[in-house]
Amino acid sequence: MICINCGCHVKSLYVKYSKNHIRLTDCPNCQQVVDKYVEFDMVLLFINLLLLKPGAYRHLVFNSLEMNLRDYPDHFDNYNIYDFRVFIKDWALWFKKYNRMNRIWLLLITFEVYLTWVTEESKYNNYYKDYKFNSRYKIVVWDILQISSPLHQYIYFAFYVIGDLTLLNKLTQQYLLKWAKWGTEYKYSNDIISYTMLLSHGAKIFPILMLIWPYDSLISTSIIKWIANFYLIESLKIVTNKPYSQIILLFTCVFLIRCVVVKSVLTLILSKGNIIEIQSYIRGEFELLRYRYLSKRDIFL
Fold first, then answer.
1. Taking the CB of residue 57, how many other CB atoms lie within 10 A of it?
2. Is 270 helix (H, G, I), strand (E, B) or coil?
3. Helix then strand then coil, % of the chain, to nearest 5
4. Residue 27 to residue 9: CA distance in whole angstroms
């Protein structure tokens, strides 16, 4: 646990005197209250997250997260398939340990699939129809949208979103923890990065929770994505204290890798390994990118 003001490590956030009385700990380094958000209710904490208050983020990803995880073992033998009872017990314990994060990830993924589906459908209906009719090449998302079964469309977009978020998570963790050597002093550094990214992506569901945003338009979904990207960069800056230049460079590189890898996997699935169709998809995606640039349409959407 840390002081949310100066980042100094502390042993406890408060001293409990009786069932309903606690005294917040003062930081030995900066002499301020270590974590004032201990006494905040969820509504105030939610508002502070919206406002990108550094203390609110540090409270959740450092202190609150550690208090939730410290009662569980650090490692699970999830791959012990030879003892089925141990295998099931470890997985059940893992789900219990990460119950809060898993539920938020599930909500986020479900909503992200919907956003992606609406966005891509709007793009191809409003922006790319002329290009598609004049193109002799295949386009990945267009072919997904031509699938007659909505369930199959949803599965494809779910795969797209899960793959995209997984790459974003793993590549960011790999860079910060392995290459930038951040978090060596934190016990749950891997979970801290994951939780930070989860909270920043939660910006996408804030408007629908307040019931004030029309989500079915291309402009609104694009604005939401740009806001979420801003939240992601700012939250990583708050938590890691890395310079903006380094975080933006990381974000740009990860974005390019995600685009290439996820689209490539979808291409393999749709083409069923047919080399000619794979080549057609690659040419189609390249020509579409060129069309977007030359026509100055949908560049930032």
1. 24
2. helix
3. 70, 5, 25
4. 9
Q: How far apart are CA 125 and CA 120, in angstroms?
A: 8
The first and second tokens of residue 159, run together, are 């795969």
Strand ranges, E, within the chain: 14-18, 21-24
Radius of gyration of the chain from its Cα atoms, rounded to whole angstroms: 22
CA dihedral 35, 250, 288, 160 (to 10 degrees): -50
Judge contact between 90 and 76, C-beta under 8 A.
yes
Q: DSSP for 17-60, please give it.
A: EETTEEEEPBPTTT-SBS-GGGG--HHHHHHHHHTT-HHHHHII
How far apart CA 165 and CA 144 sit, in angstroms, is 19
Sole residue written with tokens 């002799």: 136
Residue 220 burial (10 A CB sphere; 0-12, 13-18, 19+) = middle
The C-alpha angle with vertex 256 and arms to 122 and 172, in degrees rounded to 5, equals 110
Query: pTM for the full model?
Result: 0.82
pLDDT tens track, the chain, 301 positions: 899 999 899 988 888 877 677 888 899 899 899 999 988 888 888 888 888 899 999 999 999 988 888 877 766 555 555 566 766 777 778 788 888 888 888 888 888 888 788 777 777 776 666 655 556 667 777 778 777 788 888 888 898 889 888 999 999 999 999 888 898 888 888 899 999 988 888 766 655 554 455 555 666 667 777 888 888 999 999 999 999 999 999 989 998 898 888 888 888 888 887 888 788 878 877 777 777 666 655 555 5
180: Cβ contacts below 8 Å, ≥ 6 apart? 240, 242, 246
> Which among 168, 154, 288, 163 is positioned nearest to 228, based on CA atoms?
168
